[in-house]
Amino acid sequence: MCGRYVVAGNVHEFSERFQARQVRFRFEPTWNAAPSQDLPVIVEAEDGAREVRVMRWGLRPRWTKPGERSSVAPINARAETLFEKPMFRPLVRRRRCLVPASGFYEWKREGSRKHPVYFAVRDEPLFAFAGLWDEVGGEAGEESAASYTIITTQPNDLVAPLHNRMPAILRPEHEDVWLGSEDLDPEEVRHLLAPVPAGTMEARPVGLGVNRPGNNGPELIAAVGS
């Protein structure tokens, strides 16, 4: 799964890296992005241009009424069952997104404690998780609320010792295809969401500070003794 990640960039960097139009909102880098937070997402607008938007992490079903608290808000969606789940199937066709990231955390159990490990892509200060998004409301003067989920896939050899899932990291050459408006068949989706090679990534144990969602700062990804 992916339950905590890092976004060490700002709107201007997102705009340059993902060739997205400028959007005027305030966002500070976060080293401890957690579910239910409002975080940056890249979507394709109706005119085909890319936009940076802030959305809530945890997908609200499209049938949720405005102002209603949803009892279901998945933060992850399994790549293998996207076309089987009624909640995700229509979004694969019309509402795919890029989720900017600089790295993510998984935890290694040692005795009675779980110690975080930070994973990043070599030489890529910003990359993209594959995501799905949706929007509730926005009719009859109601304010719309956008939310997203991060797709997970089988782990590569680097992540597998810690978890049986990992976020689906898109290769840069696949980002246009994933974000585009063209329909994708299951085989194309399987290809795009395959785990990136372990050799393209790096991992390091980090301190326990990341275990508290309220903690934030670059010190969270500093390596500690293994």
What's this entry about, in short?
The chain has 226 residues and is mostly beta strands. 13% of the residues lie in helices and 34% in strands. The chain has helices at 11-18, 89-94, 172-179, 186-192, and strands at residues 5-7, 30-33, 38-44, 50-57, 76-78, 96-101, 103-110, 113-121, 127-136, 145-153, 166-167, 169-170, 201-205.
Outline the structure in words.
There is one protein chain. The chain is mainly β and 226 residues long. It has one domain (5-221): SOS response associated peptidase-like (hypothetical protein yedk fold, Alpha-Beta Complex), CATH 3.90.1680. The protein contains four helices and 13 strands. The protein has helices at 11-18, 89-94, 172-179, 186-192; strands spanning 5-7, 30-33, 38-44, 50-57, 76-78, 96-101, 103-110, 113-121, 127-136, 145-153, 166-167, 169-170, 201-205. The strands form two sheets. Strands 3, 4, 5, 6, 9, 10, 11 and 12 form an eight-stranded mixed beta sheet that branches. It has a five-stranded antiparallel beta sheet with strand order 2-1-7-8-13, with no helix packed on it. The longest helix is centred in the first third of the chain and has 8 residues, at 11-18. The chain is globular. It starts with a strand and ends in a 21-residue tail after the last strand. 35% of the residues are buried. The mean pLDDT is 89.
